[in-house]
């Protein structure tokens, strides 16, 4: 499978987009035939990007990527709600040229403990002055969910009522383990986000997979 895309943060744009660039094309195994022409590949990638970015229930606690295997589109990533997995597949399967959709998106288990960790990590990251620019809400979880909704309330149902709007740093929590995905402007912001996530009570581990804009990859931070 050839992995073609990764969600990126486009210079503080107001919405998330997916981009295709040379550093993110990673050959994982030989691509089986038949394949699309270069022109069709570019068209299909752009259409998939647009469809996935337009999902109204794709939020800060989800992370989606996709790749191509022959003429099969492979969806990967993590969904905090089962509806996102099915909605993502439904959004792309009608694109002309795609023969099949292999939906490998992992639905994260429902867990009140994980919800509490999501709330804690979210607030620790997005209330940091240097990181507020990565959040359209520019506030804590209570403000993002609605008036009067504090962390305690959010922890009881944050998966079903996630913060809305643009978030460059995505927070994936599974069985108490946290992974940060997204693209930030500089290494300092990546380090601050990692430190803030590590300070969240209840988190068993934190993997910082944030990428600095313009860099092909970065080492993980614990």
Number of helices: 6
Average pLDDT across residues? Answer: 79
Number of strands: 12
Give the helix proportion (percent range): 25-40%
Q: What distance separates the N and C termini?
A: 29 Å
Give Rg in angstroms.
17 Å
Query: What oligomerization state is this entry in?
Result: single chain
Overall outline: globular
Catalogue the unreliable spans: 1-30, 143-156
Q: Please trace the helix and strand order, writing H or E for each element.
A: EEEEHEEHEEHHHEEHEE
Question: Largest sheet, described in full?
Answer: 6 strands, mixed
Describe the structure concisely for a colleague.
The protein is an alpha/beta fold and 222 residues long.
Give structural attributes:
222 residues; alpha/beta; Histidine-containing Protein, Chain: A; 2 domains; four-stranded mixed beta sheet; 6 helices; 12 strands; 23% strand; disordered N terminus; BON_dom; Osmotically-inducible protein OsmY
